[in-house]
Amino acid sequence: MSRSQDLIRRKGEAVANGVGARSITVSRAENAELWDADGRRFIDLAVGIAVNNTGHRHPKVMAAVAEQAELFTHTCFQVAQYEGYVALAERLNALTPGDFAKKTMLATTGAEAVENAVKMARAYTGRSGVIAFSGGFHGRTLMGMALTGKTAPYKKDFGAMPAEIYHAPFPHEYHGLTTEDAMADLQRLFRSSIQADRVAAIIVEPVQGEGGFYVAPTPFLQALRALCDQHGIVLIADEVQAGIGRTGTLFAFEHAGVAADITCMAKGLAGGFPVSAVTGRAEIADAASPGGLGGTYAGNPLAVAAAHAVLDVIEEEGLCARATEIGATIKSRLDALSQTPAGAGIGEVRGLGAMMAIELVSDRSARTPDAALCNEIVAEAEARGLIILACGVFGNVVRLLPPLTIQHEMLDEALDILEAAITTVMDRRQAQAA
Predict the structure, then answer these.
(1) What is the pLDDT of residues 367-378, one digit of tens each?
(2) Same domain as 263, residue 334
């Protein structure tokens, strides 16, 4: 039995079944490469689900954490304040979209960021209703599950969800749902389920993550901004997966030219160290009473030091522009493949910056989701040394999240492997059908 096989066996015996895991193990990683417990190399186009935007173990991130570790590792900010936390809040207040006074709180996970954003919105408005969108993902906590617009596996078997959470359709132009349709459905929701003046917040991902990498159309985000202004509703941007340079701008909302009232971020913020942030209009962020926000590990000093280094690296190395280059390379290669017999199952190549996806279908005309094809491609890529992920409400979307620091040659190698995996799976299917 190999070391990887033994680790997988031990996981099955010791770890709760609900903690799903791929069959990949890891012993070390560097930038866009990962080696498993048996020394086998992979190119990583998942990077912890858009966490290591600056690559595994970026030298500047590791140096910043080591320097902080020599000073102190934990006090709980509410017990003893430290400069790194305050300075990171100041940076995020300046960097997030919106020309208005802002304040920030730090937390640990994306789900915590979302929960605290909702708390701020409810405290500020005195209302309780929250609207989210179908296909959205906002975390695995109770409020996060309720906001998430995908039942399995996130809500399955977990009982009743919190009250006053509503879902509206997210525009998918590939599937015929336009911005106009989505906005009309919101108006129907106001007429049928909750009046607008009882809604505290609308939360939206500018690019849906787990939902299938659907990019929110610019007119949709602009219309949401106008709707929220009209009814005094707080607009929350969930930038947990799309933020921190991933889409070619520091925050994906920037592409739409409008600003949310509150921006939630996590994942890529600290290059693999657990920190999240909620940055919002000062008057909204201040609505909660002292003690109402925070957490024991919120804004951990090591993670805060890593976040400062990540923001430095993104600026110094021009990683927003690099994200745009990466996305253009991926789209060009996969669009070309889709025009060949091997790419017959590719319904659409889409994304923003280095947040790219392939939607796989069994019938291009009917756009019928093909989850089996997606799973086969992911498995074949893994067998060839490439880590990619599936997503989508129907499980038929391959998502590609390379680190923004990936070398040009390694990106080409990764796409060569992906093309070979898709070709092999399609050839195998044709042979089985013959």
Answers:
(1) 999 999 999 999
(2) no
**What span, in angstroms and rounded, lies between the C-alpha atoms of 39 and 42?**
10
Q: How many angstroms separate the first and last alpha carbons of the chain?
A: 37
Residue 58 has pLDDT above 90, yes or no: yes
Question: Could you tell me which of 69, 187, 202, 225 has the C-alpha nearest to residue 127?
Answer: 202
Instruction: Examine residue 64 and state whether it is found in any structural domain, yes or no.
Output: no
Rounded Cα gap, residues 162 and 164, in angstroms: 7
In this structure, are strands 129-133 and 165-168 parallel, antiparallel, or unpaired? parallel
Mean pLDDT of 17-37: 95
Nearest C-alpha neighbor of 251 from the set 97, 433, 416: 97
Claim to verify: residue 155 and residue 273 sit in the same structural domain: yes
Give the domain range for residue 213. Answer: 72-316
pTM: 0.97
Beta bridge partners of 106: 277
In contact, 276 and 262? CB cutoff 8 Å:
no
Selection from 395, 374, 377, 394 nearest residue 386 by Cα: 377
What pLDDT is stored for residue 156 in this prediction? 86
- On whether residue 255 sits in a domain, the answer given is yes
Binned at pLDDT 50, 70 and 90, residue 151 comes out as confident
> What ranges in 202-293 are assigned the alpha helix state H?
218-231, 282-285
Q: Provide the pLDDT confidence category of residue 158 given band limits of 50, 70 and 90.
A: confident
Nearest residue to 103 (alpha-carbon basis) of 115, 89, 117, 84: 89
Domain boundary among 316, 333, 357: 316
Q: Domain for residue 63, yes or no?
A: no
Same domain (yes/no): 164, 303: yes
Total number of residues shown for the chain: 434
The Cα–Cα gap between 377 and 274 comes to 31
Kindly state the tokens that stand for 277. Answer: 């942030």
d(CA 25, CA 276): 26
Q: How far apart are CA 164 and CA 158, in angstroms?
A: 17
Q: Which two tokens stand for residue 86?
A: 């305050």
Number of domains observed in the structure of the chain: 2
- Asked if residue 79 and residue 110 are part of one domain, the reply reads yes
